[in-house]
Every structure is written in structure tokens, then in C-alpha cells.
Amino acid sequence: MGRGGQQNGQLGSGESSSCKQYTWEEVQKHSHRGDQWLVIERKVYNVTEWTKKHPGGRRILGHYAGEDATDAFTAFHPDQRFVRKYMKALLVGELAPSEPSQDNDKNAALTEDFRALRKQLEAQGLFRTSPLFFILYLGHILLLEVLALALLWAFGNGWINTLVVAAILTTAQAQAGWLQHDFGHLSVFKKSTWDHLLHKFIIGHIKGASANWWNHRHFQHHAKPNVVSKDPDVNMLNMLVLVGPPLLLPIYFNLHILQTMYTQRDWVDFAWYLSYYARYLYFYSPYYGILGSVLLMTFVRFLESHWFVWVTQMNHIPMDIDYEKHDDWLSMQLKATCNVEQSPFNDWFSGHLNFQIEHHLFPTMPRHNYSRAAPHVQKLCAKYGIQYQVKGLWESWCDITRSLKKSGELWLDAYLHK
């Protein structure tokens, strides 16, 4: 861990880091790779060396270099007492009393009201998990996996039965994707150790992907959604236009996962990744052989890729995509996200990501509580004139098509006239 209080000569001999005071202008000078400071609750931290060890990846800290990261820190860390043990060594000082708590002329009243709302929702128990919800959710995924095998055992590998099995496996994979998302956000267990373990099991053994790859990519998206050059989902738009929704999972993501595990020497995730393929081939090769099993797996990924793209992008691609504006947490998330109407089907189909606004504001909140938090968020948005968008499912899918068409036209124009 970097000894932040001793870097760059900021502290004199015997001087307490908590006594050193800085202006925002001084903090903002440390916003470059190799020299990164940020502010949390008016305390100034040098995270330059810590970026190399940060569990969420080095880039997410860099996205907040030179800024107030209080709300992002609160959003991503359910057990702050544990995290603060590591922060002591990074402390270099605090903001001068004359400095505002927010940088870049952010609305202080809105920020305080949002933080008060979070405390209100915590007091109402909306950050507490219902164990039964997640037990039943995992159970229905495992039941689908068993059902697919039972159909093959009972009716064989004919074309009609194979299509039915493919549909069932696609559903299981999509729902497992939403479940790994819960564990990845540390929104299930009180102790994050269990979340991390179940995350590796679901995304690795059930889905054949990498937990660390997902963490490093997805938390950047949450930290700066729809911010060009900071949100990897925005950076992926050109690839999405080129390969289209069908090939995103089976080709682009799979290759990227393998590349990431290899370059980072992430052998633990690689072992979980291999366990998925070993299990899959063990159960399906007796019916289809090795090649047939691989073809079935690819077809399932092809179908799941459509499901994944429509659900994850219907709340973001049609929204505002722009360069860094240094907005407050609430305004930034509402510019980049919208909700889709609630219904039992929409909740299940999207893994409750139809409540994308609440999920982005409170990523560690168990998803079964989003609907209870939504009216409170709407009320706060109305107070400050912030648009809170809710769309129908069909409307949101049409918006994706229009947005991808527009992106494709812009990319083609740039390519033809480069």
C-alpha cells in the first residue's frame, strides 16, 4: 500500500497529515496518471500507489482524481469501517476551512439532501437483504439447468428438443448474469467475503467468465456512466455497432475475458472459468459430442447476447452521452440512466435492472428493495427539477435501435471521410 502522507514531500518532519490544509485548486493539480489525489468527507488522500492494489481496478480511482469522491466511496463500500483501515496511510491532509465541501461549483444543498435520503433509506432497512429472495432466485437457475438435462435424458437430442433445451439454458444463463451482478455489487451478504466467493462461483462456474474482469469493467461504468473515455460501456459502442448484439458475448466479451485473465495472471478466475467448461462438456458431450456441445454452447451465447444487450443498454444508450461535466452524484446518474416500467415480468426479465436509476444511485442496495426506494428518489428529483424518466419496455427497445442506428451512421460517416 502506498504511504500517501510521505509522497511528493507534502508533509514536513513530524507534521501530522490531518493538519495539512489544501485548496481545491491544489487538489486538482493532482489529477494525472502517476499523481492522483481525491477528497472523501473533506479529507485529502493520495491514492497514486494504491491504484495498483485497489480491488476495483486502478482506473476507477483515476476517474475521480482531483475531485470529491465522497458519494462514490459511500456507494461502493458497504463496510466502510474495514476500508478506512487502509485509508489512514493514504491521508495527506484536509480541505481548508474556507473551501466548500464540493468541487466544481456542485449544488451543495442537493448533495446534502441526497446524502440525507440515503441515511433515511438505511434507517428504513432498504439496505438489508431478504435471504429467501436470493435462495429462491439461485434455486430457479439451478432448476433450469437440471430441467435441460432431464429433457435430454428423457427425449434425446432431436432438433425440437435441442431448441427447447437451448431456450432453457439461455434463460438460466441470463438469470445467472443478473444474480452474479448482485454478488458483484456486494448487495447480498453482510460480510463482503461471502459476496466475493459466491460471485466467483456464479460468474465463473455457472457462466464461464471472470469476476475480476467484471469488477474492473463494471465499477468504472457505475463511477462515471455515459462519460466518454471513462465509461467502458460507452467505449464499447463502436464494437457493438460493428459486431451487433448477437456476437457481443460469444466473441468480443469472451476474447476480452481471456485476454484480461492472461495479462493479469489471474489464475484463480481462470480455474473457475475452466470449471464451467469442464462441467458443461461432462454433461452435454454424451448427447452431442465435443463439437456438437461447443455449437450448442455458442448458440446459447448467441441468444443470451441479445437478452443481455437489450436489458443493459435500454437504460443507458438513449440517454445523455458526453465528456466529463463534473456533476454531483445524483445529477450524473440521472442524466445517464432511466427506468423501465415495473411489472412482475419486467422485474424478472431484467433482473430488476428496470430500476436502473435506483441501482445506480445505491448499487449495494438489494434489488428487491428498489421499488420501495423509487418514490423517495422521484420526490428528491422533483424538488430540484431533475428529470426522472420511466419508459415502457417496448419504447425502451425502440430507443436502443434508434441509438445504435445513429451511432452506426456517425461511425460510417467518420470512416468514409477520415
Structural features, described:
The chain is mainly alpha-helical. Among the domains are: 4-105, Flavocytochrome B2, Chain A, domain 1; 131-313, no CATH class. It is built from 17 helices and 7 strands. It has a 5-stranded mixed beta sheet. Strand 2 (31-32) and strand 3 form a beta hairpin. The chain is globular and about 75 Å long. Mean pLDDT is 88; it is low at 1-18.
Question: What percentage of the residues does DSSP assign to strands (E)?
Answer: 5-15%
Count the strands? 7
* Portion of residues within helices: 55-70%
End-to-end Cα distance: 45 Å
* Main structural class: mainly alpha
Rg computed from alpha carbons, rounded to a whole number of angstroms: 23 Å
In the predicted model, the low-confidence regions spanning at least 5 consecutive residues are 1-18
Mean pLDDT: 88
Strand order across the largest sheet? 1-5-4-3-2
| Main sheet attributes: strand count, strand direction, barrel closure | 5 strands, mixed
Shape: globular
